[in-house]
Amino acid sequence: MNLRQQTILQQVNDRKRVSVSELSQTTQVSEVTIRQDLNLLEKRGLLKRVHGSAVALESDDIDVRMMRHFSMKQKLANHAASLVNDGETIFIESGSSNALLAHQLAKRPGITLVTVSGYIARQLKDSACEVILLGGIYQKKSDSMVGPLTQLCLRHVNFSKAFIGIDGYQMDSGFTGRDMLRADVINSVLAKGAENIILADASKFGQVHQNLLTTDSVISRVITDNRLPACYQQQLAAQGIQVDILGE
């Protein structure tokens, strides 16, 4: 995927639907070139073409999700990386913001990184840090390990901080996930008693999914952006959760 195609995918994922003419103006190439790019991206399953426009897809593919609000996710990841001390062992769950965090930490040789994400492990194959990939059932759609074996592996590793991705948060339900098996793994991580940190852009707040994550009392901190509605920030703070808000 070239830089122009990455720009197209990011715009489509951020805005949900963008016309060919708008994409042509933004990227300063012809509409014919845009249509060729859209055909390629559609064949890869990264977006859907409709008459005169491109439409975003709901996807577990990390490359797709990373293009949504990319610059903000990069800032969240940079801030999260600043909280990690040299010599620490940390857990990073799967997800696009967490993948960007892993890239930042890869430059630091004194850190040990525990993950269930095959995507993250592959991205760090040439990194300076130590990487521990936990075993389990390989969930192809999310490129991560899930199931009882993964939870058993978690019992035998220790870490001081855990960075967790979420799919939704509502005031009455708390943090939720789309996938039951991934939610089970996250709950096993949260139960270990490390400093649990939610890393998620503000678009996740206001959404709700069927799989509940462990009660908010085990969450130490939430790192998100300044699109977070004040009501959510106030509720999280009232529960004793530190909320780090990053601006554009």
From TrEMBL:
HTH deoR-type domain boundaries: 1-56
Keywords annotated in UniProt: DNA-binding, Transcription, Transcription regulation
Against Pfam families, the record matches this protein to:
DeoRC, HTH_DeoR
The molecular function terms of the Gene Ontology recorded here are:
DNA binding; DNA-binding transcription factor activity
Highest taxon, organism lineage: Bacteria
What InterPro entries does the record tag this protein with?
Answer: Carb_Metab_HTH_regulators, DeoR-like_C, DeoR_HTH, NagB/RpiA_transferase-like, Tscrpt_reg_HTH_DeoR_CS, WH-like_DNA-bd_sf, WH_DNA-bd_sf
Q: What is this protein called?
A: Transcriptional regulatory protein YciT
